[in-house]
Structure formats: structure tokens, C-alpha cells
Design a protein that fits this description.
With 295 residues, the chain is α/β, with parallel strands linked by helices. Helices cover 39% and strands 15% of the residues. It is built from 11 helices and 10 strands. It is globular, with a radius of gyration of 18 Å.
Amino acid sequence: MTSSTRDLINLPPWLRPSIGKASELSTVQRIVKQRGIHTICEEGRCPNRGECYSNKTATFLLMGPSCTRACAFCQVDKGHAPMPLDPDEPTKVAESVALLDLKYVVLTSVARDDLPDKGAGWFVKTMQAIRDRTPDTQIEVLTPDFWGGDQAAAQQRQRVETVTQAAPACYNHNVETVRRLQDPVRRGGRYDRSLAVLRHVKASNPTIPTKSGLMLGHGETEAEIMETLEDLRAVDCDRLTLGQYMRPSLAHLPVQKYWTPAEFEQLGERARSLGFAHVRSGPLVRSSYHAGEAP
């Protein structure tokens, strides 16, 4: 019996999702593979991808499949040299959006600390390519923290503003976990840097909704979760996702706790009481889950 099989057997019953319609999965997989592009839905083996595809929503992974950071929770490939940018990627993504008739698209990326602007301009190029082909498609961005350089704080602000000026439908950046667990979980990310991303968005354009999310199960306490939600509201974060961390392999961090559906529901209610306008809280919730639905 493989470790992945054992993990599946040991999962609580509420973490065994339906794979969705096989036809929807195969259609998206075929179109994406033909163009040599990537989705975080597939790279991260998201449990909701069949449901999202059926709802005409997908999340594209920009700038290649290899990340320059080594977060201990993430399924995305790491530890390899990043690929050169494919100059045709924005066009290929836009073609895929049109072929799949997607109404709402989330653009995310691996961290590209090797690029001078950390990839901010690439988000804008891809957004423009989609709008040129399917102008009615709503585009949400889920960016890295854009940190780096001799004047890292000022450059981070400029990079966030570059993306914000392209007017995404929502700007998402995940804190991923509570302050105490940032170092073992994120390895390269910093709690305050992430809060700064969300703060810069609102300073640049307060009309753009901002969103962040946490994966639960790394050993955080309920008090720490609430402290994090309060910190997010302090930078005017509008939307929130709370989901269960599921260990991708034995090389990743072990799960410390499986939070129950009832606990997620309670946390969601408490988040709404803090003023979040749009909350998704449940074991299988991920960053882009039901992203295109109105608050």
C-alpha cells in the first residue's frame, strides 16, 4: 500500500470529494496540455477542480511550473531552475479562456524571485490578452508577495500598484497561516510582507476587493486564527477563504489537526462578524473556490 493510499484511507469522511464530471476534467486538461500552459487546479491537485470547471471557472498558473521558493505545504514543483518566460503564454491563456468559455478566471503564479519585477508585469500582459479576446470575462489575481531588491519595501509597493492599475475584479494574496507558523510553513514568505500587499492594493485603488486565505491544520489555535483575521480586517481585507491543509506527500509537513465542518462553520460565522463581506470556510475550500460568485 502506498503512502498516498494510506493517507486517503485515513482521511476523515468529509475530506473525500467527488472528482466532478470526467468530461469537464478531460476537456480542460486537453486544452491546457495542447498549449503547454498550466493551471494550479491540476498542478496543486485541487479537490474542487471538476466543480469549478463545470461552473466555468479556472485558475491559471503563470510563468512556468517551477517555484523559486520552497514552501513546506505546497504541491507545486520546486528546487529546479525556473523556466524562461514563454512569450506566447499570455496569448495561449487567452485562447484557452475563450475555448472554455470561462466567465471568471483567476490568474496566479509561482514565485519568480529571479525576475526584475518578480512577475508583476506578466500578470498585466496576461490580463490584457484575455480582455482583448473575451472582454466580458472577469479576472481575479492571486499574486505572490513581489518582495525583493535593494529597496524591497518600496519596490513591492510599486509592483503591487502595477497589477492594481490593471483593475482586476479582485486582488488575492494569501497569508496562508498564522504569524507563529510562518517560518516552518511558508519558507520565504513573511506575515507582515503579506499584510503589506493587501494594504498597498487598498492604498492604490480602494474600490478593488481584496482577499486572503488560510490553510488550517498546521497546529494553529483558534485564538491565533482570530488574531490573523483581525489583522486582515485591519488592512481592509474584504474576502476570506478558510480550508483544511491536506498533506500532498511524505516530503511535506504532516497534518497536525483535521478541523471539522462544524468548526469551519463556526469560524466562518466569526469571520463575518468581523466584517468580511465574502467568506468561504470549509474543509475543501481553496483560494479560488466559488471565486466568481457575488458576495
